[in-house]
Task: inverse folding
């Protein structure tokens, strides 16, 4: 057997260390990148993170309702809006998110608080709440980026925290919607 030279031996040692360190590292996926972009064109898109998990409307139920809709009435309660959506996860798991507010008739940033302005309902996992829940802690904001009744486009961004008495805190972040009605 041939003797290895010091240079050959050093080369083999370096190569062993290089290959030992050569593990494939998965690049973590940014969940916000999985949401639809925040647009103002009437693209009929919706997305948010609920407790860090992507939530987008998907699937359909036999109830005949679309999985996403925005309703705007500038004459009711000084300008009312609501967003209703659901995602069919499987036959036994349909998650609903409904939220809305009043006193909104233009582009701007609106504080969403427990007293007034924020109505929210969530049904997912082991938690189910009602839109008429008046005792839960709620806070956040709604940023209306396009309020265009003449072209029927309503767009915005939102974020809020919701603590119903029977569930853990629901953290809704990176929310965006763009709807043509």
Result:
């Amino acid at each position: 057997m041939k003797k290895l030279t010091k240079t050959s031996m050093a080369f083999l040692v370096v190569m062993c260390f290089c290959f030992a360190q050569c593990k494939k590292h998965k690049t973590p996926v940014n969940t916000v990148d999985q949401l639809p972009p925040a647009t103002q064109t009437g693209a009929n898109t919706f997305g948010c993170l609920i407790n860090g998990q992507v939530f987008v409307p998907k699937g359909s139920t036999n109830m005949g309702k679309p999985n996403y809709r925005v309703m705007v009435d500038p004459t009711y309660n000084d300008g009312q809006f609501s967003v209703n959506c659901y995602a069919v996860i499987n036959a036994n798991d349909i998650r609903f998110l409904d939220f809305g507010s009043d006193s909104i008739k233009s582009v701007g940033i609106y504080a969403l608080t427990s007293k007034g302005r924020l109505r929210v309902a969530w049904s997912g996992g082991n938690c189910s709440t009602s839109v008429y829940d008046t005792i839960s802690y709620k806070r956040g904001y709604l940023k209306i980026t396009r309020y265009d009744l003449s072209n029927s486009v309503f767009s915005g961004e939102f974020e809020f925290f919701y603590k119903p008495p029977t569930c853990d805190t629901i953290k809704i972040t990176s929310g965006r919607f763009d709807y043509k009605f």
